[in-house]
Amino acid sequence: MAERLLEVTDLKVDFATEDGVVHAVDGVSFELERGKVLGIVGESGSGKSVTSMTIMGLTRGVNARFGGQILYKGHDLLKASEAEMQKYRGNEIGMIFQDPMTSLNPVYKIGDQIIEAIRTHQRVDKRTARQRAVELLRQVGIPNPESRVDDYPHQFSGGMRQRAMIAMALSSNPSVLIADEPTTALDVTIQAQIIELIGRLKDEFNSAVILITHDLGVVADIADEIIVMYAGRVVERGTTRDLFYDPQMPYTWGLLGSIPRLDRPRPERLHTIKGAPPSLINLPQGCKFRPRCPHAFEKCQQEPALEQRVESPGHLDRCWLDVEFKRTHRGETIAGGATEAA
């Protein structure tokens, strides 16, 4: 049985503001085993990044309130001191941030930034750390790493900067790698290369990956399990096959329908989900997706629990609609998208 590295249970994250309390994450639970990839998908503001940054201990502040548990190898990270988190952050759990141009310091050489990350967590001299930095750049596919290690971020392309960020995140051989929108602002060819690289490095380093994105197409070929988040909650969870071939939540249908298809005639317009995500300060009553759902009915004024409603073990959804109704009608929403009704 694979080693369970991370276990998040009923995680809640609130932020007190002048306008009210922002319920950024509400009751999120998942497990992550070594060698596995977990995809977390949802629109902007759904709580994906706050979840990952809370795991890293980056959301702590006087206005933040937390609940639940984040167990890493049995240690509760929510109860860990800042000094203890320094040992976990980067050393045990690495993170690739979504915008490498703002994450990398523009006035320091790429190599110096990787060397600093290495020496922060390992007792090695600068020469050894530089050799390690060159090797990491080679592993992530940077050509001529012996010379490019002395380049500045502006001398790298967008894809190369992202590769440098991956090299930095892997500098201490972390057991868990969190990739927060690692393909944002990259063209589709480079996106595919970055996703393939993350999968290959996961196997080489025998680690586990949390891949955060708003695009289900990004996680289709790499994720073992996917959770779909909306308004700070998990609204559907299952294997990649479950989510693509038997989706149960109308919000998931909308995300699938927004993916362009190459094997069908091109529609005049891509499918969109009507409306906008709700305010995390004033959430709607009942199902949080109800104001945007084309199939909402009276019972949706009560919030459904995240439960298993289909035969597939571990496939959970948060929707009152009858399973047979979903399987009959979801094709109307997904039309032109990534899958068909089962």
Q: Termini separation (Å)?
A: 31 Å
The overall pLDDT average reads 91
Output the strand order for the largest sheet. Answer: 6-7-8-3-9-10-12-11
Count the DSSP helices. Answer: 12
What's the short version?
With 342 residues, the chain is of the alpha/beta class. It contains 12 helices and 12 strands.
Explain this structure to me?
With 342 residues, the protein is α/β, with parallel strands linked by helices. It has twelve helices and twelve strands. The chain has helices spanning 48-55, 82-88, 100-103, 110-121, 126-139, 145-148, 158-169, 188-205, 216-219, 240-245, 250-257, 323-334; strands at residues 4-17, 20-33, 37-41, 64-72, 75-76, 93-96, 176-180, 208-213, 225-230, 233-239, 307-308, 316-317. The strands form two sheets. The chain has an eight-stranded mixed beta sheet, with helices on both faces. Strands 2-1-4-5 form a four-stranded antiparallel beta sheet, with helices on one face. Helix 4 (110-121) packs across helix 5 and helix 4 runs parallel beside helix 7 (158-169). The longest helix has 18 residues, at 188-205. The chain is globular.
